[in-house]
């Protein structure tokens, strides 16, 4: 992880932004189907957040399903312990769920690691929902982070939203990555908006630094990096490419990513003989993304829906000018001088690109280094970890609903039929837990040796109190309420 | 919906993520869900307008009933195939004439089929059907009667379910094929080859050509076409009633429920509709992406 490998200068400049108030240290278990070695937004979010939380002194373990032959316990950088549980994968790296079969394994993890907070990620992950269910049965506090937007109208959405309502009706706190995502999640699961926090994603700015020398001189390159699927608006891209290549002979397109819509781009390239001007790079590893980004001047995002688009922040961090569709949470992500927003039509995106190309030609754009300097301070993982830590502090003082309260909440909140079914399942789950506790009592289970947290045996050394630093990189707007002022909510109804 | 303690600073809350704002992460502003739109662009249905459209469904049901009536008559020997053939021919010619008379209403953007082409198609169909009717007659000899009836019923049901009610003129392939398959099954149970030929011609007329005529009448004037459909429904009930009273009662009940009851349900249940739209929806691509410069 780059933010560990760089020198202490980086750390010291961030150090004085951490509020040195002693908070209790939590023992957190992150659960999701999606983790390393799978690469993606959710995976890197979990990893980076865990690293920053460990840096703050908390104990973090991760539970995910086994990837091929990668089963059992593995240790990642900094003593991050990952449990690869042998659960059957069904589709798209998501496990099957029966609400019961993962209870013994997850109970083992939670008891051995003395977990106090279970933090589940991603609505698409069945294991995350299972873990939430079991954690509530075991009386642990739960947090759920949602990373995506969903519709409401089609049959699959109706069913998924119902399952989400059941899963989240007694979850202690929910985190969303943008305000639009918060509104969407509140509507989908009929939640009280006060238990939903908005904590955006972040980007590691040292991974995405500009390199203006790499971009070819005399030509303007537009970079697109996304999965080539319908949702990412590849059809729009296929409409933009011929028009713009016709009007600007010095314009090139560099497209990274793979997917079923690749054929659309290949057809366009074939039809207009743009083989030398449109390059399709295929699937890219995460570490190769930066090298592709720095070869361009403009980053184009044509998504039809996004909760929080990481790609545009990565593009801006590499110093590119960003052109994007105005959908989902994208308008909230970057300030107006760093991004140009367009309607999701070919006409509007073409006009937007024309405007940015015009600006580039006139030299009326900020240098890549200036853009990078602005973006690097906007979203940092340490900021995310600090805000998440506040969520954990808030969560730990909440009461976990006992079984009776939980059944009532399921019946009231989730509707007559679904609520009754899942109340029944919750009772069975509880009985199964009692059986497991009788067979293998909690006291009989060995406690695992900590690899991170306050009693870490071999994790990173604890942080020293922050040294005084000339506040060149410090951000003065530390919010006044982070010094222990009481938070607003009373007990949840 | 806001927090209990008012935040100190006077800056308003903004829906941006890049700036750390002096509000808690779970702050709920009064602008929360301000972009939510409910039930946008839903149609208001009016009862009699929906009934007029639903009559088309009833009409197709009655068409099937009339076809079965003809088959019943032929099977019991009360209708001779020559009479059916001549009637079909005359009705076909009249229908063709009517279709042609109504056709100038349509635009001239399509290449109109010449009468010669139509005559050629008709001649091909009739000659092939006549030539193959002995083969078709013995097609289901080894199949038991119950199976034939069950198959026909299933196929006619499939025809009704997949019929393109919104625009009957290019008849959907599944519905037409299902209807013709049912008619072949039923026709093969008739006493002679000529019976089979007559039945098949009648089926072609009713299932392949009648929807085209109906579509052109609807395009011309929707009012008379509704009354025409009602007439077909009454004819269906009457015809079926003359051979099988129980069937006529069932058909009448089905027609009443489809034409009168279902529209009532549709109109009444609209008030339970709850569509939500907002910035989280996936954007729709409305344009034709095949249009390109050059």
What does this structure look like?
- The complex is a heterodimer of chains A (493) and B (294).
- Chain A is elongated, with a radius of gyration of 24 Å.
- Chain A has 493 residues and is of the alpha/beta class.
- In chain A, helix 15 runs antiparallel to helix 16.
- In chain A, 38% of the residues lie in helices and 15% in strands.
- The relative contact order of chain B is 0.16.
- The N terminus of chain B is likely disordered.
- Chain A: Belongs to the glycosyltransferase group 1 family. Glycosyltransferase 4 subfamily.
- Chain A: It is an enzyme of class 2 (transferase).
- Chain A: Pathway: Glycolipid biosynthesis; glycosylphosphatidylinositol-anchor biosynthesis.
- Chain A: Its main location: endoplasmic reticulum.
- Chain A: Its EC number is 2.4.1.198.
Spell out the blueprint of helices and strands.
The complex is a heterodimer of chains A (493) and B (294).
Chain A (H helix, E strand, L loop, with lengths): L1 H4 L2 H8 L11 E5 L9 H15 L3 E7 L6 E5 L3 E6 L3 E3 L2 E2 L7 H10 L4 E5 L4 H12 L3 E6 L8 H14 L4 E4 L2 H11 L6 E3 L21 E6 L8 H14 L3 E6 L5 H10 L6 E5 L6 H5 L4 E4 L8 H8 L3 E5 L13 E4 L3 H17 L5 H9 L4 H16 L6 H11 L2 H24 L54
Helix pairs in contact in A: 3-14, 4-5, 8-9, 8-12, 15-16
Chain B lengths: L36 E2 L8 H29 L5 H22 L12 H23 L7 H18 L10 H15 L5 H28 L1 H22 L1 H25 L6 E2 L17
Antiparallel strand pairs in B: 1-2
- Strand order across the largest sheet of chain A: 3-4-2-1-7-8-9-10
Give the overall average pLDDT of chain B. 87
Number of helices of chain A: 16
Structural class of chain B: mainly alpha
Helix-strand string of chain B:
EHHHHHHHHE
Helix count of chain B equals 8
Low-confidence stretches of chain B: 1-5
Query: Which pair of protein chains has the largest interface, and what are the residue counts?
Result: A-B, 64 and 37 residues
Pathway (chain B): Glycolipid biosynthesis; glycosylphosphatidylinositol-anchor biosynthesis
Organism (chain B): Gadus morhua (Atlantic cod)
Main location (chain B): membrane
Pfam families (chain B): GPI2
